[in-house]
């Protein structure tokens, strides 16, 4: 598989503290990669290393199959980024701000108007950025990141400070990028709900370690509902079901049934009734992605 | 490669009053002599047979001050433009080497200072003509006192730009700068090896161009040190 971003044993320490440790990130082409983790998990530090702003203490970063250490400028020609709070020059207008980057990126002049329209700032292009709201500044940052139509877009908490309609717009814009321009997007957030609606792949990081990395479907599968059954003798019922070839786990007060469809649930209950168990309760337990995320990050904290 | 960066840096100093500073500096230096000669022209004319030279020496008492002060303000402004919203991270994430980022800042400030020197030359020459200092206009000396202080001040520029770009708090380079201005003001009392003395163009050898050459040499050295250090640092 062709990876746009690949890090190997990526580690960054500040003094004794390891902000990122042995992180292995893999992002295939054309994906929207949701980089998820609680505050202070090392997301921004990782992103800074991906952009060559910080030097890894050990390990390597490869973008487009090239090593960051020796091909920084070459790589960055195809990367657009927005790191943490938006950076801008308050005394310049929106247009001048983009012009300052455009000159360095050698992008055609028309791109400025194009990206300004894309983030709906065209109406205020000649106003000084000083007077912009946080959401507008954030959008200007995204416009700057897209000036040169990069192959990889790295957005660190891009919906910070946006209002609900702004968030929806941003989401639609980001979702359209892989389809329309073949871009790969890395988007970090501490909110799972946000990632859930955009990402096709997820990486969960906590305390500088990657604890989950797979497609969003896999993550959803973990979240799938299970059926809990409570009978008069849970253990006996559980043994009996296993003997019958059904997948089940014994919980403290109930049996957890892993089933794929309703018919199976019916068949299992039918079987238990035939075996003479008294069924007290049958209930569905849904674990939200949020729960899984919390569980994943909690386990790490407990260590 | 470096030109787009320089163009971009010139765009960023728009509306920051740096061009005004470029004009005020040389004008201020000459304006002080306008007051001086306006008040006691006859007395000053009696001080030395070579009236032009005496006029240039008077000018040169304030040129080093103006240059050192100008450098402090310009370097601090320049890095505060990037510090303000931590635009360093956005700038360095563009496909540019950190070395050229630093070189571009150095170049832009040098250009402004050089333009100031050109203006100084024009103002000194222009006001000198109206004073009636004599027929023999010492063009060479005039050039020396206009342009050599700029070259002699390059080490100060190298040092200030270095400190300004790596300091999160601009109070540090400004404090250093104020000390530098005091040094420049008390140049006659300082030993020759101190870089703040050089723009005054006086030394034990009696040749002004030595200061300029030393300035270029140590200016390049301090510039390189600053650049290497800037490149080495992580961008927060």
Automatic annotation (TrEMBL), chain A:
The gene is yxlF_3. It comes from the Bacteria. The keyword Phosphoprotein does not apply. Residues 5-232 form the ABC transporter domain. One of its GO terms (molecular function) is ATP hydrolysis activity. InterPro entries: AAA+_ATPase, ABC_transporter-like_ATP-bd, ABC_transporter-like_CS, P-loop_NTPase. The keyword Amino-acid biosynthesis does not apply. This is Putative ABC transporter ATP-binding protein YxlF. Keywords: ATP-binding, Nucleotide-binding, Transport.
UniProtKB/TrEMBL annotation, chain B:
Keywords: Membrane, Transmembrane, Transmembrane helix. It holds the Pfam family ABC2_membrane_4. The chain crosses the membrane at residues 20-39, 59-81, 102-125, 145-164, 171-188, 208-228. The keyword Ion transport does not apply. This is ABC-2 family transporter protein. It comes from Oceanobacillus oncorhynchi.
């Amino acid at each position: 598989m062709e990876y746009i971003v690949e890090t190997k044993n990526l580690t960054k320490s500040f003094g004794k503290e390891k902000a990122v440790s042995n992180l292995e990130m893999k992002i295939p082409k054309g994906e929207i990669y949701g980089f998820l983790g609680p505050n202070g998990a090392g997301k921004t530090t990782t992103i800074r290393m991906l952009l060559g702003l910080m030097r890894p203490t050990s390990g390597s970063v490869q973008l487009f199959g090239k090593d960051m250490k020796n091909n920084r400028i070459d790589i960055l020609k195809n990367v657009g980024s927005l790191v943490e709070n938006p950076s801008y020059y308050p005394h310049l207008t929106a247009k001048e701000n983009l012009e300052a980057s455009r000159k360095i990126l050698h992008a055609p002049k028309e791109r400025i108007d194009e990206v300004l329209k894309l983030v709906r700032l065209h109406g205020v292009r000649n106003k000084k950025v000083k007077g912009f709201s946080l959401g507008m500044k954030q959008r200007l940052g995204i416009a700057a990141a897209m000036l040169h139509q990069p192959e990889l877009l790295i957005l660190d908490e891009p919906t910070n400070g946006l209002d609900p309609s702004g968030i929806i717009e941003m989401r639609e814009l980001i979702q359209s990028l892989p389809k329309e321009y073949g871009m790969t997007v890395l988007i970090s957030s501490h909110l799972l709900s946000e990632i859930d609606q955009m990402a096709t792949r997820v990486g969960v990081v906590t305390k500088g370690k990657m604890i989950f990395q797979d497609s969003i479907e896999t993550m959803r599968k973990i979240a799938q509902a299970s059926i809990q059954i409570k009978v008069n003798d849970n253990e006996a019922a559980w043994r009996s079901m296993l003997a019958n070839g059904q997948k089940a786990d014994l919980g403290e007060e109930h049996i957890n049934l892993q089933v794929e469809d309703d018919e199976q649930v019916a068949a299992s209950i039918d079987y238990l009734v035939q075996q003479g168990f008294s069924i007290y309760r049958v209930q569905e337990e849904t674990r939200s992605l949020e729960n899984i995320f919390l569980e994943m990050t909690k386990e790490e904290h407990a260590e | 490669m470096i030109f787009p960066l320089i163009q971009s840096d010139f765009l960023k100093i728009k509306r920051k009053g740096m061009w005004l500073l470029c004009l005020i500096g040389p004008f201020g230096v000459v304006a002080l002599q306008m007051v001086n000669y306006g008040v006691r022209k006859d007395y000053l004319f009696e001080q030395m047979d070579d009236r032009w030279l005496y006029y240039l020496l008077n000018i040169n008492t304030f040129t080093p001050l103006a240059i050192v002060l100008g450098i402090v303000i310009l370097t601090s402004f320049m890095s505060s433009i990037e510090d303000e919203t931590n635009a360093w991270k956005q700038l360095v994430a563009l496909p540019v080497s950190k070395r050229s980022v630093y070189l571009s800042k150095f170049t832009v400030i040098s250009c402004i200072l050089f333009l100031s020197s050109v203006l100084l030359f024009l103002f000194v020459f222009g006001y000198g003509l109206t004073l009636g200092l004599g027929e023999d206009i010492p063009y060479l000396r005039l050039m020396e006192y206009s342009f050599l202080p700029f070259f002699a001040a390059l080490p100060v520029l190298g040092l200030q730009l270095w400190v300004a770009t790596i300091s999160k708090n601009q109070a540090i380079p400004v404090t250093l700068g104020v000390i530098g201005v005091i040094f420049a003001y008390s140049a006659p009392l300082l030993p020759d090896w101190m870089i703040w003395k050089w723009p005054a163009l006086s030394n034990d050898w009696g040749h002004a161009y030595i200061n300029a050459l030393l300035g270029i040499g140590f200016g390049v050295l301090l510039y390189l040190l600053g650049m290497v250090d800037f490149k080495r640092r992580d961008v927060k």
